[in-house]
Amino acid sequence: MQHLDLQVIEQALTWSRNGETVWLCTVLATFGSSPRGPGSWLAARSDGRHVGSLSGGCVEENFLERLQDGQFEDRIQIVRYGDAQDGPQDSRITLPCGGILKVLIERLPANSTTLDQLEIMQSTLRGQRHLLRCVNLSSGEARFEVDDGLGPRVVELTEREIVQLRIGPAARLIIAGMSPVSVACAEFARTLGFEVVLCDPREEVFEGVELPGIEVKPILPSLFISAGGCHAATAVVALTHDPRIDDLAMMEAVCTSAFYIGVMGSLQTSKLRAERLRRIGGLSDEQIARLHMPIGLSLGSKTPAEIALAVMADIIRVQRGRSRDAL
């Protein structure tokens, strides 16, 4: 599934290869309400053609008009939209609930440096590694550093005039086993932008079930995981209460770089599962400690949708590098 980040960078790369200067806009921060979060991209040409988005439309319209008027010829600029004091003097630029949008605008000429940058970003988005793109706000120069992919998408190091932008493959959710909770979790995850893969060898459990946008694989989830289904942006959840599916999935998942591994069950069930995984699966205490069990945030969830909400909320928490104590 091609997510929006990859579409933006691939189009920017195509334009650059064709000799076009590209303006790459990145949302650095939002204050108040905003339709798009930090790290969101928009790429544009001087004629106004563009891909991606920064807001609900008003910011893009203003930026593209100003771009075609030749107002963004500097190598690098920061613009605050929705700011009555420092933002563009345009009455149309108002964000919901009085929000403010801080945008980094980079002019990338069609040269070998730009091509190298965009090709590295493309391969990172397509692959299984994470990088930090570190942009110098004075010179506009950018370099890459290895990253674990966890934490906020944008980090501003004001004292060093550096902004760090996280880049990585599309977040993936592997759901081990079909259940009502699995269906609700898959739908939540798809809405959140995850690539969702649901694995269950029991083909009959999918009869009469429609899962648009979800990749369904009628195999043991442990087989899919062991065949390379996980990367560092992958979360693995087991949601069946069937140890033949759940335990095997956990045994394989702890051998991968998945950032979140969780399995559904009560405290007592989780205790028994941990003992079983040590005894039968040979898992170490360190591997057991990687498992989120019981899975999800403690919200008092009862229904499948409520349990799925708790699961996805916990996955997002870990993905963003937040501790439970910080909630």
Write up this protein.
This protein is an alpha/beta fold and 327 residues long. The chain folds into two domains: 4-167, no CATH class; 172-326, NAD(P)-binding Rossmann-like Domain (Rossmann fold), CATH 3.40.50.720. Helix content is 32%, strand content 24%. Helix 1 packs antiparallel against helix 3 (112-126), helix 4 (180-191) crosses helix 9 and helix 5 (221-229) packs parallel to helix 6. The longest helix has 16 residues, at 304-319. The chain is elongated and about 65 Å long.
Which keywords apply here?
327 residues, 5-stranded antiparallel sheet, 6-stranded parallel sheet, Rossmann fold, Xanthine dehydrogenase accessory factor, 24% strand, elongated, alpha/beta, XdhC_CoxI, 9 helices, 32% helix, XdhC_Rossmann_dom
Number of strands: 15
Query: Helix content range of the residues, please?
Result: 25-40%
Query: Which descriptor suits the 3D outline?
Result: elongated
- List the secondary-structure elements in sequence, H or E: HEEEHEEHEEEEEHEEHEHEHHEH
Mean pLDDT figure? 89
Straight-line N-to-C gap = 31 Å
Instruction: Give the number of helices.
Output: 9
Sheet/helix structural class: alpha/beta
Number of separate domains: 2
Radius of gyration: 22 Å
Largest sheet, order of strands side by side? Answer: 12-11-10-13-14-15
Q: Report the major sheet.
A: 6 strands, parallel
Protein name: Xanthine dehydrogenase accessory factor
Domain XdhC Rossmann: 173-315
Pfam families: XdhC_C, XdhC_CoxI
Domain XdhC- CoxI: 15-82
